[in-house]
Amino acid sequence: MSRKPLAVALVHHPVIDRAGDRVTTAVTNLDLHDIARASRTFGVDRFYVVTPVAEQQALVEKILGHWREGFGAGYNPHRGDALGLVRQVNSLDEALADWSAAAGETARPVLTGAGRKDGIPSAECRGLMARHPLLLVFGTGWGLAPELFDRGWTVLEPIRGAGEYNHLSVRSAVAIILDRLLGT
Question: Where does the signal sequence lie (predicted)?
Answer without folding.
Answer: none
